[in-house]
Protein 1
Amino acid sequence: MNKTLVGVLVLCVIVFSLPFFLRVHYSFINGQTNTAEILNATPVFVATHVETPSAVKAIYITACVAGTPSWRERLKKMIIDTELNSVVVDIKDYSGTVSIVDSNLQANDVSGCRVKDMRDFVADLHKNNIYTIGRITVFQDPYYSKLHPELAVRSKSSGGVWKDHKGLSFIDVGAKPYWDYIVSLSKISYALGFDELNFDYIRYPSDGNMQDTNYTWTASTSSGQIMSKPEMLKSFFSYLHDNLKDTGMKMSADLFGMNTTANDDLGIGQVLENTLPYFDFVDPMVYPSHYPPTWNGFKNPAEHPYEVVKLAMQGGVDKVNMASSTISKLRPWLQDFNLGAPYGVAEVRAQIKATYDVGLNSWLMWDAGNKYTPGAFLPEEANVGLNQ
């Protein structure tokens, strides 16, 4: 073969191979290792995460607000300007609607609020060093119950899907195929940038004709006995923990406030001590307005924000100590909304003080309308101690 022909062949190989080598070079610069991504020269998004503050002080925002730039900017500014340092954002709400858009998730009800730029929103929060918690409601899920009625709590009388007094349906706690859906959603959310996943409605239903409920997915213990509600929930906690522990995400569990002082599972399977081994934080919802009349002698508990929160969280501290766990895992949900009594600066600060007075330093503030009380949070430069 003459030199001219050899030269032409070599030149052809170089020309046709150049795009591939350029893609490989581009991909390795960007830390990519997947062959398909290398060939397509597609940069891979790698989420950044914020370290958990030593004292988490958060407000909750709905997906609808997170998807409204002007509103979420006002709340972000409030966080930056005050002692607040964290935010809880809905990923999956009480209806089962998922706010994030991801091709790996099953099609969802388009009637709910979505946050199309959730990844950018979380990244923007991180730029301001705001710890970002994603809230996932678990077993109350009307959407998924409709999509997969075979996984739902059933009605004994009709044989169909059971619904509570509000017309809401629940997934059976024992339905393991649904557990995998929650694990998958959690992993997708963490990869999007959320620093912590907060699991709410981790319980059996509580409002409705409970005599008509039929739990067809309840498992058996090793001895062949049917699992109790607390045992079934604990099995779910263990599964969630085992399947997410290697991701690096923090995990928290929301509990009914009465769990801190009750001696049983309240009929919904929740036992505070059962959550401690599987979650980084346990968040009792100790809203004073949610305690029944005459609780601990208070005719209207909502009118006694300091006393209710202090009694409730002291009960939690005592239980955690008895379980030889650490009280830093306790982080209450507090009330900033009018129910049972008007709530303003004094009532919000009273709950925060009660939290500090039992030796805790973290809290989450709830208002479903996301219209938080001006002046309820101290200026950012304030040095807030445990007893302030």
Protein 2
Amino acid sequence: MARAKYKIVLSDLHLGFGPFNPDGSRNLLEEFHYDNQFAELLDYYCSGTTAKAEVELILNGDIINHLHATSEDPMADTLTETVALERTQSIIDGHPKFFDALSKFANSPHRSIVYLMGNHDIGIAWAKVQQLLKNRVHPGLRFFLDCYESDGVYVEHGNRFLADNRVDLDNLFWTKGQQEPVLKMPWGCFFVIHFINPLKKERPYIGKVYPFKYYLRWAIIHDTFFAIKTIAHLALYFLKINFVRDPKRSFSLLDTWKILREFSFPIMLDKEAKKVLDSKPSLRFVSFGHTHHPRYRQFAPGKEYINTGSWSELIGLDVGSFGHQLRLAFAEVFIDEDGTLRSSLKKWRGVYREFEEFF
């Protein structure tokens, strides 16, 4: 008799090197502070009504953050296999509860884990990085660099649809004149390392605010000097990224124009999800991440799309999403013994606790 199946999809957790630096100070680049809640979620899907079902955890990109660096690091944007291994180990060491929970889940009966590459965890393109994670979690951990499809469910991070973070999977490595191959990262990776991460040391909330253009307008009035300095640095960054040659970068002025246009319009990925659903009659559900905004759409009966958002704090400045937000969002896809599929976008509330860290 066939078992009922659950597919649990999460994305954009952005695990860094842990909440504290070696000297005990706060790590202002760390975005993930919910190891306990994550462990509770996995425990929930190993017990109760799900205990006898097959449960597949799909980690849909940007789970770990290989961009956890700034220009002060001489290897900040030079992601060799050695650098990726070092950063992955630092992330594992910084989040022991998270990886213990993954290991416990993967070693439970009828449980499995799939990991898809995003733009922040591009280092999993290296085989040794995948093996390091398998050693820590479970040898059956499976990796996909593009997309994953199973039981009428299609999952992809979604960064390939946007000019700033599109990864060329056919041209991933720069080898000419290098002692060790270097990953060719997209425009957005350089932007995070050289522009966003340094700003976080002055304004820790800077990576949480959206849309960024509204923040700049606010800052011009209320944080004038910082805003002027930021706009000047942004202009210089765009000039440098386009006119100072670097073989690690493989984007053009046309790409920059597309990126500037994307900054001006909200990103939903709905059209792309519908195209994927329409491409195969067998597909019933599509999930993307990347945009950090949870979203559910039904295009037709049995044709659904969920964006799983992020487990990071956001500060919305748009009228429709104004204010501080924390949504521990995920998608649950349930397939019963007869093959009937039901999907839902959920927010994890966790179990009762007396207190949580408040920064």
